[in-house]
Amino acid sequence: MTVRILDAAYDRMLQFGLRRTTVEDVARQARVARITIYRRFPNRDELVRAVVLREAGRVFRQVDAAVESLETIEDQLVEGFVTLLRAVRSHPLVIRLLATEIDLLLPVVTVDGGPVVALARQYLAGHLRRAQKAGRMRRSDPEAVAEVLVRITLSFLVTPDSCIPLDSDRQARAFARRFLVPLSQLSLPAKP
Questions:
Q1: What is the per-residue pLDDT across 16-43, written as a single tens digit (0 to 9) for each?
Q2: What do you get for the CA distance between the two ends of the chain, in Å?
């Protein structure tokens, strides 16, 4: 039932945008009662949040698939960046929101972007911790390293216009190898 609700909400958001997606419309498309949605999601914002988290999970699974067979953490960071950049920039909902409702999207990834940064930081920090445990990465605070890398990546996602060419996978790989890999090797201190 929850999958059906999330599928309907995603379809409505893609077709009509965030502003014009209502719980009533989602319920009608999912063929469930509004109360059924409200039992799972206390309000419309939580429903939207659940859709966004599910889509983020899909992107993270794409990244995981792209890096799973790579030996070094450096190669994983490079391919992870390339895959993430490509996946987010080509995501239908992101494209829709950037084109029609950027005013709703920008706060979610900037001034109110704490949850987005936290989700991505936790995901990346998990990979960095595993690399440290396996002896494939120098010791540092994986949360701090992940935060720096996430914030840089987010800035390129939100503001793709740049003097740094990232339009092709080759360009993105070159950037990640030159800038992100060295940043990942800094010994950033843990938060006190």
A1: 999 999 999 999 999 999 999 999 999 9
A2: 44
For residues 87 and 127, state if they share a domain: yes
Distance from C-alpha of 6 to C-alpha of 29, rounded to nearest angstrom: 11
CA 33 to mean position of chain CA atoms: 31
Are 36 and 52 in a shared domain? no
In which residue are the tokens 């800094």 written? 186
Q: Which two tokens stand for residue 178?
A: 């030159």
73/155 same-domain check: yes
Please give the Cα distance from 95 to 90 (Å, whole number).
7
Does residue 30 sit in the same domain as residue 67?
A: no
CB 157 within 8 A of CB 110: no
Tokens of 151: 């914030």
The amino acid occupying position 41 is F
**pLDDT value at residue 192:** 59
Q: Are residues 12 and 65 in the same domain?
A: no
Q: Can you tell me the distance from the alpha carbon of 90 to that of 55, in angstroms, rounded to the nearest whole number? A: 12
